[in-house]
Specification:
It is a single chain. It contains eight helices and 16 strands. By secondary structure, it is of the alpha+beta class. The protein folds into two domains: about 5-225, Metallo-beta-lactamase, Chain A, CATH 3.60.15.10; about 240-299, no CATH class. Helix 7 (about 250-255) packs across helix 8 (about 265-285). It starts with 6 loop residues before the first strand and ends with a strand.
Length: about 300
């Protein structure tokens, strides 16, 4: 059954809310309307569920994750634009699977979900864009890409001009915190991105999940600080756990990203990649030592 989840107009921007405020697997998509063209940003399952998707002249994807491209197939006759570093993921399902890096048997089940639940549609002629790319929609309305890696290699924000709005994509300001559990994720890049994003000159911020719209810079900075602090909280919990030696496999089972009871099929894979990055950071900082092969303890 088709539904409409509401929308909000802010200057040239229309926020198209998904189910439950864009909670995963849904999301909040954006429509930016200029004098000459309209751009839809991150078409989501929220658009798929609507009675009709808004017409658009181009699709902009902040990165190539399943929930952000789930509605791309609604726009088969317009150009699709993705960050250059994530572009392989939209060109074939095999390449997209490499982005996640899930082992079997999770990989096969996820491949099926990408097609059946998230409507993955490969697009060989999709266009890549670089940091700073500008999409001019006419009448002074522009969408400017801002490379913000960490979540994925290509993850990008969009600055909507001249309205002073930033679309934060998956810097979603949620209590879950930053996600860096894929093969194409990088904890160091995410830390650097979170440091840089504080300096963005804007007065309104939109997220793909959960929060929706934040209209105060002070509120944004407060929420961003809480979101960023989740990384350090995970690190602190890991150091406390490593008061006694443990292997990475034991760390994975203890759970630091997800709660122990969370029924997430790919939780172990995400925990392993995330905690491996934390371990490598802590080893380099000499805050953790490898007391014997494969066993780690806080210094």
């Amino acid at each position: 059954m088709s539904e409409d989840f509401g929308e909000r107009q802010i200057g040239a921007l229309t926020v198209l809310f998904g189910a439950r405020g864009g909670k995963y697997p849904s999301g909040n998509s954006l429509l930016v309307t200029g004098r000459d063209a309209r751009a839809v940003i991150d078409p989501s399952l929220g658009l798929v569920a609507r009675a009709s998707a808004p017409p658009a002249d181009l699709v902009l994807n902040s990165h190539c994750h399943e929930d952000h491209i789930a509605g791309n197939h609604l726009y088969p006759d317009v150009p699709w634009h993705l960050p250059e570093a994530d572009l392989p993921g939209i060109r074939s399902l095999d390449a997209l699977m490499q982005l996640y890096g899930y082992p079997e048997p999770i990989g096969s089940a996820w491949r099926k979900a990408l097609v059946e639940q998230f409507h993955f549609t490969p697009r060989a002629d999709a266009h890549g864009f670089a940091d700073g790319a500008v999409f001019d929609l006419g009448g002074g309305v522009r969408v400017r890409a801002w490379h913000a890696p960490g979540h994925t290699r290509g993850h990008s924000l969009f600055l909507i001009e001249p309205d002073g709005i930033v679309y934060l994509a998956d810097i979603d300001l949620s209590s879950f915190g930053p996600y860096y559990g894929d093969a194409w994720s990088d904890l160091g890049d995410f830390r650097r991105t979170l440091g840089r994003v504080r300096e963005l000159d804007a007065h309104c911020f939109a997220t793909f999940h959960h929060i929706g719209v934040v209209e105060s810079r002070a509120d944004f900075l407060e929420r961003l600080a809480r979101f960023s602090a989740v990384i350090d909280a995970r690190e602190s919990r890991l150091l406390a756990y490593l008061a006694e030696p443990h292997t990475l496999a034991e760390i994975v089972q203890h759970r630091f990203v997800y709660r122990p009871g969370d029924a997430v099929a790919f939780a172990d894979a995400v925990e392993q990649r995330s905690m491996d990055m934390h371990l490598r950071e802590l080893l380099a900082q000499v805050r953790v030592s490898e007391v014997e092969p494969g066993r780690f303890r806080a210094v």
